[in-house]
Amino acid sequence: MASGGLSTPRRLYSRSNVCILCNFSFIVTEINENGQKIEKKLFHEKYKLTTERVIAIRKVIPDFKTVDDTNNGVCKKCFRRIEKVNHLREEAKRHEADILKSYSAVQSVSHVSDISNKRLLRSPSTPDPSKKKNKQFPSIELRHLVQIPNLFAHTSTQVHDVRPLYSQPTNLPDMSEATIALPLKIIPTQTSIKIDNAPDFKSAKRSLGFYNQEKENQNSSLKDGTVKVSIYYPSGKKTSVITAEAYKTICRALVRGTDNVNIDRTIVQTLCKSNPMQVVHGTAGLIQEECKIICKRGTQTLFQKKGYDDFFKFNWDHMYNELKMMCPSMLAIISSIVSDIPPSVNTKPFMHIMVTAAIGLHGRSQEMSAIQYMVGFLLTHGGCTQRDIERLAKIGVCVHPQTIHNKLASWQDKLDLEILSIRDSWANGGTTKYQLIGDNWDKNILPSYRTSDQKTLSLHLFNMYAIVDRVPAEKNTSESFLDVSDLDLLTFIPSLTEQKQLMQELTFIFATSVIQNVPQIGRLFKKIYPEHLNHTYSDYAGLKTAQYPLGIYDCNENKTQEVIQLLKELSDKYVPLKDGKIVEPVFFGGDRLTDERIQGAQSAMGNADTAKEKLEGFISKTEDFHRLMNFLEAIHKLTYNSGSGNDPCTAYYYRNLLNMRNVKGKVKNSYRPYKLLYYTILDAVLLLMFFTYFNLADLDSDIPIPENFEDMDKIKQIDWLDTICRNILQQFFFENNEDICHAVREVLSDPEHEVNYWTANLEDGHVKCHFCARTYTYVGSLKSHEMKVHGVQIKKEKKKATVKDQDQLQDYILMLFKLTLLHKNLDTAVDMGDGERCVRSTKYELPIYNKTNKVKYVIASVHLTSLISGVLPGDQSQSLISNRFVNVQGGKNNNIALDEHLEMLNRDSKITCTGHQTKESIIKHSKEYAHLINYIKYFELISGTRKRKGFHHLPSYCEDVRKVAKDLLEHSALKHTINRKLKCKDLKIDRNPFENCVSGLSSMIHRHKPPTPFRRLRDKHI
C-alpha cells in the first residue's frame, strides 16, 4: 500500500558561494520533514576578495590564486586569522629591529671604566615637586564694581528681551536694579546675546598682568574637553565642573542627542560600563515589581490555572505572550541568558526560557505551579519512582507525587464524561453511538527478594476504552432477527460476485507493488496511480475518530464470575436505557477469548428475568488485528518450517538469506517481523510475474511501453497497467477459473456428500434418520442408530493421492503467493477503513482456519458472517461493518483495527505503572493512566515533539525484494519442472490452498451458527 510519509530532514550546502580558505558555504538550504525548502543566506559572514585582502592573504599563502568568475569570498573568521598572522609577523619584525638596534648601540660604546656614573635631575636641596602648589592666578581677585541704578534708562533702543546665549529659567529675580560684575550688551528684540568667555571690562587682574595668563589657562581648559554644568534654582545658579569621563559622556549625549531613545541608550550603556552594579540593582527592582504583580493570588495567569480544561488548552505561545505583557523585564533577562538572538517557538532554547521563568515564579509563589504539574505528569507517565519525583520536587522542577495523584484522582469523573453524555443522547433517540473495546491486561511483578512467600505476582486485569462511531447508521425500526436455519452453507464461502470484487482489490495491490518495486513503472505511475482504493465509506475513512480510555478494571476474564460482575457494572453505566429497558445493545469488541468469555457470561445469566439482567446490553465481536495475526499463523503453519532451510525458495530459506534474525518463535510474539518476511516474498513473486508476462529474463530490462503512452490520458494509462495485472492474476491466482473455491463449493452444495451426510436432514434442531422416520437430538445418537439398525458403515478419510509429475516447488510458491496476497488484502482493507472488504475476507479465511485446525477462529468467522447476513438488524449490521477502525492522525490510509489501538494503550499503561509494584496500587491509580496517556499526546502536540518513525518505512525493503526476485528467477520458481521435489516433508503443498479443507467444515458451520446475537455458544446436539 502506497502512502506518503514524512522524509528525513536534510541540509544542502551551495558549492558555488563558499569561503576559499575553509570551504564554509554562505548559502544553506534546509529541507524539513514535509519537503519544504528554507534557504538561508549568510552573507553577513562574507568578505569580498578585494585587492587589499588578496595581498593580505598572499602574505600568508604565497601561491594563493583567485578566479574572477566565481562568487566565492572569504569568511570573517578566516580573514581575522590572516590579519592576526600578519600583525604578529610585523610585531615580531619590530621587536627584532628594536633588539638589534639596542644591541648595536651597546656594542658601539667604548667603556674606559668599569663603573658608569649618571647624574640625577635634582639636587638634594630641591624640595619635593609634589609639595609645590601650581597656582594659575592669585587667590585674591580685584575687580572695579559699577553701580547701575537703571539698566535700560541709558539706551534709546526699545528693549523687549535681554537673553544670554545659554538657557535661563524664567523665575529668576528682577535684574533691573542689580550690581553686576559682567557688562551686558543691550540688543533689540529677537537678537541673541553671546557671552564671551573673557570679560570686556578692564579689571585689576589685567592691570596686574594676570589676565593674559588666566585667558590662556581658560582656553586650554576648554580645549581639553572639560564639561561645565549649570542648574538654575529659584534661589540662584548652581554650577559644577564634570571631571568623570562617564558623566562627561552622559552630558555630551544630552547636548548632542536629538532622539530620546538614543540618549537613553547612551546613558544606560555608559552606566553599565562605569557602575554596572547600580544598573543591576535597578533592574532587580523592576523585576521584583513585575513578579509581585504576576504572582498575586487571583490574577488567573496561566501559571495559576490548574484545571482539567486548562491543562488540555495550554499553549506555549499564550504563556510567552503573557510573560511578555506582564513581565517584560524578566523575560528579557532570561532570554539574554539562554540565547543571543530571540529563539523561535517550540525550539529548545524557547522551552528553556519558559521553564526557567516557571521555576523562578514557582519559587516565589507555590500557586505558580502549572508547569511543575506538567513535568510531574511526564515523570509519572515515564514510570519514575515516587522517591525520585520527591527529590525533583525539592529543587522546584515538579510538584510532590502525592499532589500529582490527588490532581489525577480529581479528574476520574472526566474520564468518561463525554461517553455518558452520548449515552443519554442515544437513549433519547440520538444518532451518535459508540462501542466498547476490551482486552486482558496481564503483568508479572518480580519481587525484590524472592522467598517462599514472596513469589512472582501475576496480575490479570482488564483494560477498556470507548470509541465513538464515525459512520452514522441508518435507522431501522425492525427488531426481528433472521432464523438461523435460513442461512445456507454457501453463505459462508465467497460467491462468484464477491470473487470478482476480489479481483479488483488484488489488481490494486498488484499494481501498487509493481509501482513501488519497478523504478521505470514508478516514474510513470507514482504520481497518477491512486493511493486509496475507493469504497462505500471512503468519505469517512480519513476522519479522525474520538476514543476515550476508560481505565483498568479488576477483572480476570478467565473467571466467568468476574466477567459477569464486570458486565453488570458496565451495563449500569454505558448501556443506553429508557424506563429500565435497553434501547439498543452496545458492541463489545476484543480478541476471540474476550468474545467467548462474554458469550459464556451471557449464557450463565440466560435464566434472568429482564434483558438487562441477562446481560443482553452487549453484543460481543472479534476484531481485525487478531484476525490478521491468526490468519498469518495459519499461513505460517502451512508454509514455514525450520527444517526447510536447505530447500531453495521456501520461507525459512529466505529468512536466512535476508538475515531476518528477529523472525523467530511464535507468530503472535513476532507478528510484524513475520509479516515483513512474507510481504517481501510476495512482492518478489509479483515482480517476477510482471517481468515474466513480458518474457523478460533480466530484472534490469526495460518494460515495453506503448508508443502512444504519453498521448494517453491518465485513465487509459492506469487501465493499461491494471489490465496487465488482471491478466497475471487470472493466470496465477485464479488459474484461469472463475471460482477459486470451487472444491469447497462442490462439497457444501452436495447434500449427499459424505461430509454433509449427518447434517443433511437437520430440521428444528433434530437430525432425521436417512432410512426411517425417527429423529434424534444428537448426531451421535443418529450415528449409533444407523450403524446398528441400518448397517451404515462410516468411511474413513482417504489420504490425498499424489499428483503425477508434480512440481512441488512451483506449487509451494503459488500457494504461498495466494495466501499472502489474501492476507495483504485484509491488511490494506484495515488501513483504508474498508469494512465491507474486511468482513468479506472472513469467507476466504474460514476454509484455511478449518484446514489448519484453528477452531476458535473458525467459530469467529462463522459468527461474523452470520451477524452481517441477517442475524443482526440492518442498522446494527451496517454499524458492525463500517465502524471497525480507529484513526488517530487522520488520512484515508491511516486506519488501524480497534484491538490494535487497545494493544498500544496496554503497552503505554504498562510503562506508566512501572512506579507501582502492587495490585492494589495499580488498581488505585489505574484511572490515572488514561489521563496521563491523553496528556502526553497533547504535550507532544503543543511542544512539536517529533513522532516516532513508523514500521513500514524500511530503507532496504526494495533491495530485499529484488534480491528474493533474482533468487526465484535463478531457480525458475514459476516455470513448471517435472518431479521437482522439496526435501522437507512437513510443508503443506497445495497449489490451490482451498483444496483439502472441507473435512468437518459443514458440521462446524451447523454447530456454531448463532440463533441470536447473544449467547453464541455451540449447539451441543451437533
TrEMBL record:
InterPro entries: DUF6589, Znf_C2H2_type. One of its GO terms (molecular function) is zinc ion binding. It comes from the Eukaryota. Residues 117-136 are annotated as: Disordered. Keywords: Metal-binding, Zinc, Zinc-finger. Residues 767-790 form the C2H2-type domain. Pfam families: DUF6589 (PF20231). The keyword Transferase does not apply. This is C2H2-type domain-containing protein. It comes from Mytilus galloprovincialis. The lineage of its organism: Eukaryota, Metazoa, Spiralia, Lophotrochozoa, Mollusca.
